Task: structure prediction
Amino acid sequence: MNIDFQGKKVLVRVDFNVPLNDAFEITDDTRMRRALPTIQEILEKGGSIILMSHLGRPQKKLKEDGSINVEKFTLQHLVEHLTDLIGVEVLFCPTSRGEQAKEMAGNLQQGQILLLENTRFEKEESKGGEDYAEELASLADVYVNDAFGTAHRAHASTTTVAQYFDKDAKCFGLLLSAELKNADKVLNNPERPLTAIVGGAKVSDKILLLEKMIAFVDNLIVGGGMAYTFFKAQGGQIGNSLCEEDKLELANELIAKAKEKGVKLLLPRDSTIADNFNNDANIQKVASNEIPDGWMGLDIGERAVADFSEVIKTSKTLLWNGPMGVFEMENFANGTKSVAVSIADATKDGAFSLIGGGDSVAAINSLGLADDVSYVSTGGGAMLELLEGKTLPGVKAIAD
Ligand code: AMP
Result:
């Protein structure tokens, strides 16, 4: 970060949208840990820090009387753990605006840290409200955006707020910079062969990604529930597998486009099928285009794993977004696990691998392979939009 933080009050937007259990304990603190380098660097360079973040969707989950469920969504739940992680006492302001926020921010001394209350307690946050953004900006001298997970939202604290700081008084945090740099390794002049592995439930969620990938990858591997729409489009029998009837034409167009561009499009040749959406269901292994009625494909099969692994291991750049099957159930996790292991192996052999958000991140983490791939993104929707070629509002607001 190329800013002189000495003696400055620094407003830092982080993504502390961590999962909490019913006792409001943090069940995964990855997002907090990933923000630590930025916090530490600002402290080392002599700044004081005003942290702001959202947590959950409090405006969508109001109490019966229409008020905010403060007890559930307060950032107070994070204070103790954050203090432990940073090793500096974190002060908490039970609001993010008004006199109390102004006074607490005003009294902040060099080396101190103040955490503001959940920005989404304010209705204007998600509308990108200028009054709220200006109030936030008035608390500090410098603005740092390190919240990659919300950089695709034009919210007050992620985007609008940046307009109240001069160009030399705002910058990306270290995490956001790293996310952009790693996405860039895939998007700009990647070492080839470049292989994208796209999975997950629906084609409709990933249309733009598939279209973008087909335009410039060498190999496109499609697995997970979305693969069955492709088999159906080609006249296959897919039984009760997931299928989006309104995307059949699109699937055929994508297949044709891949052929036209010389892109190798790989679908799972075989599947593990089940007679129920249940880990204890009866299981068979069949060709993915010969699934009997009453059965559904819930994972890719062994032959598909072998096909996919071969391509993955000969790739120099790998992008993975979306699981190969219903990996949450042990009996249908093999395809996702095998792909994760192949990606880790290819990385060991010198490939660059980006795990691009969402459920593939959960899969890589649960397998303990996060350190064996090149980069694990913290942003699901944001990484997807970046890979689709969109400019993220939170990025544009700093860069402009
Ligand atoms: P996404 O969020 O689009 O990446 O989708 C992830 C979800 O897709 C996970 O919850 C998986 O359980 C689900 N999924 C993957 N493969 C299948 C499949 N063959 N049938 C049904 N759901 C699937």
Observations:
- The mean pLDDT is 96.
- The first strand starts at residue 9 and ends at 13.
